[in-house]
Design brief:
A 4-stranded mixed beta sheet has the order 1-2-3-4. 30% of the residues lie in helices and 22% in strands. It is built from 4 helices and 4 strands; from the N terminus they run H-H-E-E-E-H-E-H.
C-alpha cells in the first residue's frame, strides 16, 4: 500500500505535469519519505498519487491527490481515495480545491471545518 519505491525524480516529473513548477528533487525525496504514498501506474507510467501525512494516532491529512489530466474520469482518483480510507491509521483532514468538491462528496467525504493557511515561500526557513 505504501509505495516505498516511488522515486523523487518520477514524482517531480509527474507533479510538474499537473502543477508546473521548479521542484527540488532532494527535498521531494525527503518529503516522500515522510508520507504514505498510494500510487497508480499505467505500465511504467505514474498516473495517480495520493499522499498521506500522519502521526499514526491523532491526525492525518491528504497532502495531495493527483491524477494526470488524460487519466481523469476513469475512477483512478476514486480508487486512490478508497485505498486511503482503508489504509489510514487515523481520520483524515484535507482541503479541496472548489472544482474538486463534488468529486470528494461523490466519494463519501463529508464537509468539515473551514481551512486556513499560513503562506510561506518555498525554501524559506
Amino acid at each position: 500500500m505504501d509505495d516505498k519505491e516511488l522515486s523523487a525524480s518520477v514524482f517531480v516529473s509527474f507533479a510538474g505535469r499537473i502543477w508546473p513548477g521548479d521542484y527540488d528533487t532532494d527535498k521531494t525525496r525527503a518529503a516522500l519519505s515522510k508520507t504514505l504514498n498510494i500510487t497508480a501506474y499505467d505500465g511504467e507510467t505514474l498516473v495517480g498519487c495520493l499522499r498521506i501525512l500522519t502521526d499514526g494516532y491523532y491526525f492525518g491529512t491528504i497532502t495531495e491527490a493527483l491524477v494526470l489530466p488524460e487519466y481523469q474520469k476513469r475512477g483512478i482518483g476514486s480508487e486512490l481515495l478508497c485505498l486511503a480510507r482503508e489504509n489510514t491509521p487515523t481520520m483524515l483532514y484535507f482541503g479541496a480545491q472548489p472544482e474538486a468538491e463534488k468529486f470528494y462528496e461523490k466519494n463519501g467525504c463529508k464537509e468539515g471545518l473551514k481551512a486556513y493557511i499560513i503562506d510561506k515561500e518555498r525554501g524559506e526557513v
